[in-house]
Amino acid sequence: MASIQARKGVDEHGKQRTHYRVQVRLRGFPPVGATFERKTDAKEWAQATEAAMRDGTYFPQREAKRRTVRDLVTRQLDSVRTRRPHDHERQQWLLGWWREQLGEYALAQVTPALIAKQRDELLKSRSPATVNRYLAALSKAFSNAVREWHWVHENPVRRVAKETEPQGRVRFLSDAERAALLSGCRQSELPELHLIVLLALTTGMRRGELLGLRWPDVDLERRLIVLNKTKNRERRSVPIVPEVVALLREHAKVRRLDSDLLFPGNGSRPMDIDRAWYVAVRAAEIKELRFHELRHTAASYLAMSGATTAELAAVLGHKTLAMVKRYAHLSDQHTEAVLERMTDKFFRRAS
């Protein structure tokens, strides 16, 4: 018997989309499923699959034996280029390693044991956190091969243990570093860099969220940005401080007519800021500063201003409080300073 479920979601342009998840269960065969954009396609696939099972012509391992890891990586990178262009270079680097190591393996030959062996090789030259990023990239590709491309029926990476990562470092800009960085951004050959960095520092938005912003997402009158596409797939509203609103109004005067992106690049892709960013960091004479640490800086400033972990999670868009606990000690330091001033004012003077 086949069952079809309609599932609603939001695509990369913020539009409501419905896709259909179909699952076929027939005695003597493992459950198989697939996802389609049209219900008609889902019904046709279910009918054809059931018929093949009953006729004895259904071979669940056919694609898995024909397709290789090289095919998997190529298809996944094509998908990333279309749906997450800002992440394509990073995924090319991560998945390229798997292509080099396992490219000629048929997908049916890729077992958890084989992946675990490669994981251990990676650990000889890379940190646990980096190794987990390699595993995550491969896992996403296999998940697509299961749900969308119907090449395999199981994601083998799910049965491979991830490495325990050390607690994430909290690196944030000092007042002097912040001033130097913003000065370097103002002098950049990329005029938009200063606004992008200022937005990151005042909102805590991720790089992908910032560069993927579209003008319909920005309400300058209400001083609000609505993020429809986030890392955790939940919609989030982010306030804009008045100083940044003024800069956005100026930026809107020179917006391009062929794109609704705030920061458009070539064609339909967001702007590439890598070169300009590294030049600005060097000009500011700041060592080992990644763009993501602007998000850490925003969170740290909030914590030092007395924000609770719940408030931090709401601003940063975390589903749980676990990710923001790394900033708790900064809030503690703020509380200690407040108590110290109170004690000095009301008790030490009296004594």
Can you give a write-up of this model?
- With 351 residues, this protein is mostly helical.
- It folds into 3 domains: 57 residues, no CATH class; 96 residues, DNA polymerase, domain 1; 165 residues, Intergrase catalytic core (hpI Integrase, Chain A).
- It has 14 helices and 6 strands.
- Helix 4 packs across helix 6 and helix 8 crosses helix 12.
- The mean pLDDT is 83.
Blueprint of the fold:
Elements (H helix, E strand, L loop, with lengths): L1 E9 L5 E9 L7 E5 L2 H17 L6 H5 L2 H15 L4 H15 L9 H11 L5 H20 L27 H12 L6 H11 L3 H5 L6 E2 L4 E4 L8 E4 L2 H11 L21 H11 L8 H12 L4 H8 L11 H21 L3
Antiparallel strand pairs: 1-2, 2-3, 4-5, 5-6
Helix pairs in contact: 3-4, 3-6, 4-6, 7-8, 7-11, 8-12, 12-14
CATH class of the largest domain equals Mainly Alpha
Mean pLDDT: 83
Number of domains: 3
Kindly state the number of beta strands: 6
Distance between the termini: 83 Å
Order of helices and strands: EEEHHHHHHHHHEEEHHHHH
Strand order in space, largest sheet: 1-2-3
Q: What shape does the CA trace take?
A: globular
Q: Helicity range of the residues? A: 40-55%
Radius of gyration: 25 Å
Low-confidence stretches are: none
Strand content: 5-15%
Major β-sheet annotation: 3 strands, antiparallel
The name of the CATH topology of the largest domain is hpI Integrase, Chain A
Total helices: the number is 14
Structural class label: mainly alpha
- CATH-level-2 architecture of the largest domain: Orthogonal Bundle
